Amino acid sequence: MTDQPKEVAEAEAEFADLAVDSPSVGIIMGSKSDMEVMEKAGAVLEEAGVSFEIRVMSAHRDPATVSEYCANARTRGMKVIIAGAGLSAALPGVAAAHTDLPVIGVPLSSSLSAAGGLDSILSVIQMPPGVPVAAVGLDNAKNAGHLALRILRA
Predict the structure, then answer these.
(1) In this structure, which of 6, 36, 62, 73 has its CB flanked by the most CB atoms within 10 Å?
(2) Burial of 78 from C-beta contacts in 10 A (0-12 / 13-18 / 19+)
């Protein structure tokens, strides 16, 4: 993502000190079937008292929603995005392309995968220069929650 316009940076600076009830972490996933795994990241955050939200949005079926969500995440007060996806696992990379916030990718296994989840792992970790995505282990949303906490506390 390129530098923000001066007006956006100034507006964010003005609102930075306001107390709001917005989530610090956004947890997104490509399909409702991913919810059981991705809720584990939310459980870690909840235990630590960190606010978060969980949403389903597909990088393939609804790319405009993903783009808008990620582009506006910082303005809404988010500090980290956790993105879980299986098969081609494009969601973490697409999220990172639309925000300068840290993005943690959770590769997810799928019964539809002929590669046993390796396809998802490779999709999450093989990002082009300038589009960084942190990655945790296959189906390990719990570690994504722990990594988000470390980022928030850094």
Answers:
(1) 73
(2) buried
**pLDDT digits over 5-21, tens only?**
777 667 666 655 554 57
Residue 30 burial by Cβ neighbours in a 10 Å radius (0-12, 13-18, 19+): buried
Evaluate whether 40 touches 47 at the Cβ level (below 8 Å).
no
To the nearest 10 degrees (0 to 180), the angle between helices 35-47 and 141-153 is 30
pLDDT in tens, 103-127: 999 999 987 777 888 999 999 999 9
> Closest Cα to residue 53, out of 30, 72, 28, 36?
28
Cβ 78 vs Cβ 26: under 8 Å: yes
